[in-house]
Design brief:
It contains 24 helices and 16 strands. The chain is α/β, with parallel strands linked by helices. It has two domains: 122 residues, Orthogonal Bundle (Enzyme I, Chain A, domain 2); 314 residues, TIM Barrel (Alpha-Beta Barrel). Strands 1-8-7-3-4-5-6-2 form an eight-stranded mixed beta sheet. Strands 9-10-11-12-13-14-15-16 form an eight-stranded parallel beta barrel, surrounded by six helices. Helix 13 runs parallel beside helix 15, helix 18 packs parallel to helix 20 and helix 23 runs antiparallel to helix 24.
Length: 576
């Protein structure tokens, strides 16, 4: 019987494949003992399960492309080492032999003992490593409960069902060739959702009870555009979606014809279309799609899912590869935007904030932790010697932060001179406007900086006082709210008055619905996931700017009037 569940689509794609429930957390195990004569069999079962878990992880590691970030491979290596540790590979066997525990129960008892040890540790990073223990224990338990049956090692073509996915999981699954994924939690602007768009994976989030309702192996359809998950679809439904996939591929091929044509409206107004990048494969996509530049290079992913902070040399190597790989295409490197939903293990000072989105994050964290920030700035400056680089500061809220940053940049330059290391003398400095206070003070920031970039993901969140990753309230997330549009207009106008560039690098910039509105408001630089570039160019080339300029000016001037909102909704439902 066909079952349809609703969720929040975070991409425009369709996926068809078999369900694979991704276990996160421990499988419930009931206490059980065995007879003395069955102890050797139970020991063999346990050892075989450990070996199967090791082979499964090793198989995943072999399938990861060499271009994958090192922290993803390190994540797997850590779990492989844990499988070889006596605490997990030998102690449960002693419980089987001395206490006649079944293998599953012996492993569970050892897990509880380890959890107690970890909970008493004072170091937050070490305390959090119980999650790794649980992941490895869960893998062994899964093979024990399968009683020798082979797990689905090859996830190619499968649709992953999980309670939630970390960014590292998302990258790893993409390299395993999954067709799509569905999560119970998360919102359309969580960083996992943003990463899914960047990787081109059809995905749904906020599908409640998905891991309980769905079964391993059952056929699924993800319709991300309409926020639908269909299980056990009948033949006509399957034929319909297969036809849509063929049409989508045909449209994608047609868009490739736009790669080498300019992003110009019908009446000759030029716009710059740039890419948001964070992964090695994004660099090649940016070049192949002829982006005008990189408007946002997210540096924090180099710091995540690892125990040690990357030193200056490792950071410089990553930025060097990006600059050289872009072969002269200008790149805007955002300084570390850590905190909130981008926590890093073992590197964050203090405890977890009760409201991390409003706490110590981004530029606030970097200014508080100069030992973290100075090598970061030096590495970026060194990369500037190899190609056109801009530096962008996230989450500015006052001018003092800009002045402190400028002082640290000057210190970094002077230290590089002393060390005889090269850097460019012309590195423009810009700021992300994603806090309402910064938008209201856009004129003052425009006097201090070389460019501005509007980060709509956080600007909308903070303006409307909603957590964008909380699926209980993210239905309130509205980029077309009159207050949000006024703030965006303020920033664009401030840039025009000070004659500095203003870009937008939030998800709104890559959404075809909003491009006519933003162009009419005066925005000329759009930065988005590489996969959105050609569709954005298609929309831009269909527009008549002169007509759009008059229409949008009237809308913004009367934004609180019902008639203006009707005009706005109509504008965002068609290509201008």
């Amino acid at each position: 019987m066909t079952l349809t569940c609703s969720g929040i689509g975070v991409t425009q794609g369709i996926a068809i494949g078999a369900a694979h429930l991704l276990q996160r957390g421990l499988i419930e195990v009931a206490p059980r003992t065995v007879r003395k004569r069955d102890i050797p069999h139970e020991v063999n079962r346990f050892r075989r399960a450990v070996d199967d878990a090791r082979r499964s992880l090793s198989g995943v590691k072999k399938r990861i492309p060499k271009s994958t970030r090192s922290e993803i491979v390190d994540f797997i290596d850590t779990h492989l080492l844990m499988l070889d540790d006596a605490a997990l590979s030998e102690v449960p066997i002693s419980y089987i032999r001395t206490k006649k525990h079944a293998a599953e129960w012996a492993l569970q008892i050892q897990r509880e003992a380890l959890a107690q040890v970890f909970s008493e540790m004072t170091d937050p990073y070490l305390r959090s490593r119980i999650d790794d223990v649980d992941h490895v224990v869960g893998q062994i338990q899964k093979f024990l409960l399968q009683d020798g049956e082979s797990e689905v090692d090859d996830l190619s073509g499968h649709i992953i069902i999980a309670q939630d996915l970390a960014p590292a999981d998302t990258i790893l699954l993409r390299h395993q060739g999954v067709a799509g994924f569905v999560t119970e939690g998360g919102g359309p602007l969580s960083h996992t959702a943003i990463l899914a768009r960047s990787l081109g994976i059809p995905a749904l989030v906020g599908v409640h009870q998905a891991t309980r309702i769905l079964r391993n192996g059952e056929p699924l359809i993800i319709d991300s555009k309409h926020g639908a998950l269909i299980a056990d679809a009948d033949k006509p439904i399957l034929q319909h979606y297969r036809k849509l996939i063929k049409q989508s591929r045909k449209q994608a091929n047609a868009l490739m014809a736009l790669v080498d044509v300019p992003a110009v409206t019908r009446d000759g107004e030029r716009a710059r279309l740039m890419a948001n990048i964070e992964l090695p494969e994004d660099i090649e996509a940016t070049r192949s799609l002829a982006a005008d530049g990189v408007g946002l290079f997210r540096t924090e992913y180099l710091f995540m899912n690892r125990q040690q902070i990357p030193d200056e040399e490792e950071q410089f190597d990553a930025y060097r590869q990006a600059v050289e790989g872009l072969a002269g295409i200008p790149i805007t490197i955002r300084t570390l935007d850590l905190g909130a939903d981008k926590q890093i293990d073992g590197c964050m000072p203090g405890g977890q904030s009760c409201n991390p989105a409003l706490g110590l994050r981004a530029i606030r964290l970097c200014l508080k932790e100069p030992k973290l920030f100075r090598p970061h700035l030096r590495a970026i400056l060194r990369a500037s010697a190899l190609g056109p680089v801009q530096i962008m500061i996230p989450m500015l809220s006052n001018l003092q932060e800009v002045r402190q940053l400028k002082a640290l940049l000057q210190e970094a330059r002077e230290s590089l001179v002393r060390d005889g290391l090269r850097f460019s003398g012309q590195v423009p400095l810009g700021g992300m406007i994603e806090v309402p206070a910064a938008a209201l003070s856009a004129d003052a920031f425009a006097r201090e900086l070389d460019f501005l970039s509007i980060g709509t993901n956080d600007l909308v969140q903070y303006t409307l006082a909603i957590d964008r990753v909380d699926d209980e309230v993210n239905y309130l997330y509205d980029p077309m709210h009159p207050s949000v549009l006024r703030l965006i207009q303020m920033v664009i106008d401030a840039g025009r008055r000070r004659q500095i560039p203003v870009a937008m690098c939030g998800e709104m910039a890559g959404d075809p619905r909003y491009i006519p509105l933003l162009l009419g408001m005066g925005l000329r630089e759009f930065s988005m996931q590489p996969g959105s570039l050609l569709e954005a160019k298609r929309v831009l080339r269909s527009l008549n700017f002169a007509r759009l300029d008059r229409k949008v000016s009237k809308i913004i001037k009367n934004i609180d009037q019902p008639a203006a909102m009707r005009m706005l909704l109509k504008l965002c439902s068609e290509d201008g």
